[in-house]
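Let's practice the habit of predicting before peeking. Look at the sequence and jot down your guess about where helices and strands might fall. Then scroll down.
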Amino acid sequence: MNKSLLEESVLFISVLKWVILATGIGIAVGLSTTVFLKILNFSVSRIQVSPHFFLLLPAGLFISAIAVKYFSPDAKGYGTEKVIEAVHKHSGKMSAIVAPVKLFATIVTTATGGSVGQVGPCAQIGGALSSLFADILKFDANDRKKLVICGISAGFASVLGAPIAGAIFGVEVLFIGSILYEVLLPSFISGMIGYQISSYFGINYFQYHQDFIPAFSEAFFLKVVLAGIFFGVCAAVLIEILKSIDKLAGRINLWAPLKSLAGGALLAGLTFLTSTNYLGLGLETIKIAISGAKIVPHAFLMKAIFTGITFGSGGSGGIITPILFMGAVAGSVFGDFWELNRGTFAAIGMVSVLAGAANTPIAASILAMELFGLEIAPYAAVACVVSFLMTGHRSVFPTQIMGLQKSSSVHVELGNEVETAETHYEPRERSLIGICLRLYDRIKNRKRVG
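Done guessing? Here is the structure:
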């Protein structure tokens, strides 16, 4: 047989194989996401009718901690992070029990007021189902990884109603600065199928077309760049707050469920002092910010603290939705400060903080287009990339692999996980950074001599 014909035959079979597999994963994840979201919405609508529902937080976090500790420890924390960890450390191998435990723990945590999201659990449930299918079909490690990545994409797309962004998120989130092109086709297929299945069974999605987008001007473009810098700093602050609270909680030597009781009581007390706006998914606050309403300046920090305490106390859920909340309120405050349209910058901030915190600028840029329309996409893309660079070599997902140095003046060992990567500042002699650092050293030395 002709060598070229043989190659194309093999590629055709490979494409057909992944079209079938990705379609199956999309259907499975779309159905499981539908079940999860319907049970979650039902539970929230029944429990959060009372103005004092947050008094159930200690009990909710306690039950969640018990379920996670004794049935599936992998259901703890962020759902997406656990899938990333499974791909990098266990060749995509995930326990099937994690799916029902994660579903149960997230519903209990969210319904009683825990500040968590719904994207991560669906990504983790999708990953667990994909791993189970890979075991049944006796796939090797490489094919199992691909299938699990399809589960991530389908979960993201099914929850947010963004099939293209979901597909890109699955292949972008594993490595900082690198995309797995070999999984691009199955990720697109699984994301689109998952979205269509969830839509068919009645899942409604948040989409808010932004009508007020100014015509291009140098002044507005510079404000978008400035906004990207601000959102990158916000993402870095968020990561450090979550990390600090997690370390502090780790030093408390208590039985995990008992720690959850204490954390729930702390959250209930903070709610008494502030507001219920920082509990649960926070979707209503996101809609208010996107609509252009005024947001209190401290909303970003309060949501970060509530989210950190929830996870530090043993709550289970996702981190993506809280990030979108924090980005939306930060963008609203930024627009208000510069007397710009609050809704426009809430939309830009929503995706830009996600781009910085998760190191997914491409997926976040496409998410802006799918949620808010084509007009905002160029500005959102610029802000997303700037935020991604400004966040530095850190991530809300500590097991992401470093695949890029964000500056030639900052050296970091590539191939390491974010949590173990060490950065070294090596500015070139004639670079602007090098000149500024030398100037700073001279001024500091003169003050010492004086």
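How did you do? Residues 410-449 form one domain.
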